[in-house]
Specification:
The chain is of the alpha+beta class. The protein is about 35% helix and about 25% strand. The protein is built from 17 helices and 22 strands. Helix 12 packs antiparallel against helix 13. The longest helix has 17 residues.
Length: about 500
């Protein structure tokens, strides 16, 4: 087993990985940018190294600096978390060449699953159901036209190097095809440096169902059931849950076996996620493999009792999987809400600044994976995720109720967050009924305005400025309710924050 692991990430995921390492008796090294000197992940690790200026391109994406840091400090392995370098095959190759273990898949498998067209080809050959569409990249517009004709409108333009929605657009008729393809190519070029796009049949109002998979370096593969991630806003997931309301045991078993086959065909190892689209007739199609530990992995941990980060580290160290498919079970129901530093009253614009006060929700079946503390600064440079709230209960109804109560119990002062918005999403009759498709937010929350009371907002603002005057000194510090007088608990009772109701 490793003695020291470097975590090439920040925020809640770096903190979560550090905790797993410490549970396993492994020493941890955080890396940080100049904007993150006092961030929670830096405080949580055994050692920490600055790897450059605030912009990610100069720090968390700087392969040379990270390799240099790992060598200097004697880390045997690097955990990339999600985002940043997590799915960068060049980085994985660099680790392989320099004898540092990358905690994730091998570079060849990562390259394959990162290329949508190549992986569609591989999956079709293996008999995996894929969305009808093009099997190669074309150059002439005339060829795209005949392919669109063959597939039938509406079609979707997708970037071969893409994933996660970038460069994607729906085209309803031949007259829009040329401009749509050209726009897709431009977007793909600027986002991925590769303008290759292809066409697929557009699946209307699909559900997004993904399967968690673990594969060791000895050919053993298990799946850990599904997560339903249909509740999204502009391709950003907001709520995830397991089990999915759309699957029955038979379909679940079939999709699970298909997910394992996808992993085997790709020569993939370590933790991965196989994404599927499920259409209205419950037909499923392979979409892509996410070659990383995902944001929503705690949902799976709750319902299976398996610690996915422990498993990742164990697999990366070369050990065999000790869990077998037969012993894995889905128990109860888990839901995750992502807490973003965004202003739902202002078109979800990022909301940077100082967190004056944090009260974490807690209680039985409540997990809070958190990257912040009272008094910390939220820089503008990175993904605005602050924390994740995950709950577990025996069934979905109780899980929803537990989530609403936990969101009610959650206080973040000083910046805008999505907490209040999430409460309304979970409480929505359509969500409660399990009717979640990818158009849920568009359909029911396009006009959301919350129910913030001006009077309450004023009190909160006053309290926030009181905290501000207490927290001028730089550096990590914990402010408690006693730091301000009178106590907000005495003054406000069950006060509400984060744009809540
Ligand atoms: C699709 C689709 C409909 N038809 N492909 C969005 C993210 C990317 N991974 C794939 N995505 C989609 N691909 C076809 N042929 C609809 C989506 C889609 C979507 C998928 C999952 C979750 C949310 C979504 C929201 C809009 C569109």
């Amino acid at each position: 087993m490793f003695k020291k692991i470097l975590i090439a990430n920040r925020g809640e995921i770096a903190v979560r990985i550090i905790k797993a390492c410490h549970e396993m008796g492994i020493s941890t090294v955080a890396v940080f940018s100049e904007a993150d000197r006092n961030s929670l992940h830096v405080i949580s690790a055994d050692e920490a190294l600055c790897i450059g200026p605030a912009p990610a391109i100069d720090s968390y994406l700087n392969i040379d600096r990270i390799m240099e840091a790992a060598k200097k400090i004697g880390a045997e392995a690097i955990h990339p978390g999600y985002g940043f370098l997590a799915e960068n095959a060049d980085f994985v190759k660099r680790c392989e060449e320099e004898g540092i273990v990358f905690i994730g898949p091998n570079s060849k498998a990562m390259q394959l699953v990162g290329d949508k067209v190549r992986s569609r080809q591989a999956m079709e050959k293996a008999g995996i159901p894929i969305i009808p569409g093009m099997m190669g990249i074309l150059s002439a517009m005339a060829e795209y036209k005949s392919e669109a004709q063959r597939i039938g409108f509406p079609v979707m333009v997708k970037a071969s190097a893409g994933g996660g929605g970038k460069g994607m657009r729906i085209i309803h008729s031949m007259k829009d095809l040329e401009t749509g393809i050209e726009a897709g190519q431009r977007e793909a070029k600027s986002a991925f440096g590769d303008e290759s796009v292809y066409l697929e049949k557009y699946i209307e109002e699909p559900r997004h169902v993904e399967f968690q998979v673990l594969a060791d370096n000895h050919g053993h593969v298990v799946h850990l059931f599904e997560r339903e991630c249909s509740i999204q806003r502009r391709h950003q997931k907001i709520v995830e849950e397991s089990p999915s309301q759309a699957l029955d045991p038979e379909l679940r078993a079939k999709m699970g076996e298909t997910a394992k086959k996808v992993i085997q065909v790709s020569g993939y190892n370590n933790a991965g996620t196989v994404e599927f689209l499920l259409d209205k007739n419950k037909k499923f199609f392979f979409l892509e493999v996410n070659a990383r530990l995902q944001v929503e992995h705690p949902v799976t941990e709750f319902i299976t009792g398996v610690d996915l980060v422990h498993q990742q580290i164990t697999i990366a160290s070369g050990e065999k999987l000790t869990i077998s498919q037969d012993e894995l079970e889905q128990k109860g129901h888990a839901i995750e809400c992502r807490i973003y530093a965004e202003d739902p009253f202002n078109n979800f614009l990022p909301s940077a600044g100082k967190v004056f006060f944090l009260k974490e929700p807690s209680g039985p079946g409540v997990r809070h994976d958190c990257g912040i503390y009272s008094g910390c600064d939220i820089p503008i440079f990175y993904d605005p995720i602050l924390a994740k709230l995950i709950v577990w209960a025996e069934n979905r109804e109780m899980s929803c109720q537990r989530m609403i109560n936990a969101l009610d119990d959650y206080v973040i002062l000083g910046i805008q967050t999505t907490i209040g918005f999430l409460k309304d999403v979970i409480a929505h009759p359509q969500f409660q009924a399990g009717e979640t498709t990818t158009s849920f937010i568009e359909k029911y929350f396009a006009q959301w305005g919350g129910k913030e009371k001006p009077e309450e907002a004023r009190m909160i603002a006053a309290l926030a400025s009181a905290f501000d005057s207490q927290s001028k000194s730089f550096g990590p510090q914990v402010l408690t309710a006693r730091d301000v007088a009178p106590s907000p608990w005495q003054t406000l009772g069950k006060w509400r924050l984060g744009g809540g109701n």
